[in-house]
């Protein structure tokens, strides 16, 4: 009998506590924070492609062009930690009509350019040394963590301001935050373009040209907040 009484008492306390929580007046709002930044670095994915009838010769030609590209990168004082081979492939391609097999070799190098003043010179040098495909160029900020923090704070300020606007009409005030949910999506910089034409095809002029238009990138944070109403 005592066990039944204890069980009923605990159950009553639990139900009462649950009802009490549900009766706390709250307001749920969302906030967004945006920070626009001029990028200060870029990541370039560049590929050397070669084709031929003999696998060994195709691979050798590809390696020679990649070696020239790596020498250029080092000559421009890009740190060894800022470039790496991303993909290597050597594949046969069979032509059923001609009943002939050709070989297709590719090597892709990823390069981080931390000084955008080197961008134009590097791009032109890559093409001259054997790069025949630029897969993408992504502009980014070296201070991403700092700007993400700023965006989060702006998002919280907007959420609080929005809640204050709503409750001011009712003559109430917002109290402490009950819950905070981070709804921010992972920041993924978008490629500027996917393909690249040889500069010699665009112009015969030997004069240096400025081809960089990095623009701005926007770093965004989103939050949902539940405030207690007072």
Q: Can you describe this structure?
A:
The protein is elongated. It folds into two domains: 23-39 and 142-187 and 215-230, Protein of unknown function (DUF541), domain 1 (Translation Initiation Factor IF3), CATH 3.30.110; 41-140, Alpha-Beta Plaits (2-Layer Sandwich), CATH 3.30.70.2970. The protein is α+β, with helices and mostly antiparallel strands. The protein has helices spanning 2-22, 55-75, 119-128, 144-168, 199-202, and strands spanning 26-37, 41-52, 83-95, 100-113, 133-140, 174-182, 217-229. A four-stranded antiparallel sheet has the order 3-4-2-5. A three-stranded antiparallel sheet has the order 1-7-6.
The shape is: elongated
Radius of gyration, taken over Cα atoms and rounded to an integer in Å = 30 Å
Count of all domains? 2
How is the main sheet built?
Answer: 4 strands, antiparallel
Q: Find the CATH superfamily of the largest domain.
A: Protein of unknown function (DUF541), domain 2
Protein name: SIMPL domain-containing protein
Pfam families: SIMPL (PF04402)
Characterize this entry briefly.
The chain folds into 2 domains: 23-39 and 142-187 and 215-230, Translation Initiation Factor IF3 (2-Layer Sandwich); 41-140, Protein of unknown function (DUF541), domain 2 (Alpha-Beta Plaits, 2-Layer Sandwich), CATH 3.30.70. The protein contains 5 helices and 7 strands. The chain has helices at 2-22, 55-75, 119-128, 144-168, 199-202, and strands spanning 26-37, 41-52, 83-95, 100-113, 133-140, 174-182, 217-229.
């Amino acid at each position: 009998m005592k066990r039944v009484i204890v069980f009923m008492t605990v159950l009553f306390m639990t139900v009462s506590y649950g009802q009490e929580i549900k009766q706390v007046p709250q307001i749920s709002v969302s906030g967004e924070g945006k920070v626009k930044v001029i990028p200060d670095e870029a990541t370039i994915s560049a590929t050397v492609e070669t084709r031929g009838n003999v696998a060994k010769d195709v691979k050798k030609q590809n390696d020679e062009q990649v070696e020239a590209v790596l020498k250029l990168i080092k000559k421009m004082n890009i740190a060894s930690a800022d470039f790496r081979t991303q993909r290597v492939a050597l594949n046969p391609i069979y032509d059923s009509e001609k009943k002939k097999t050709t070989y297709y070799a590719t090597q892709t190098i990823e390069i981080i350019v931390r000084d955008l003043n080197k961008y134009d010179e590097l791009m032109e040098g890559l093409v001259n040394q054997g790069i025949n495909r630029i897969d993408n160029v992504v502009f980014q900020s070296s201070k991403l963590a700092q700007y993400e923090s700023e965006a989060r704070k702006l998002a919280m300020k907007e959420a609080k301001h929005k809640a204050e606007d709503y409750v001011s009409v009712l003559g109430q005030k917002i109290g402490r935050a009950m819950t905070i949910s981070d709804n921010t999506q992972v920041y993924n910089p978008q490629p500027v373009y996917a393909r690249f034409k040889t500069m010699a095809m665009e112009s015969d002029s030997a004069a240096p040209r400025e081809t960089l238009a990095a623009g701005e990138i926007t770093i965004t944070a989103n939050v949902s907040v539940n405030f207690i109403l007072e």
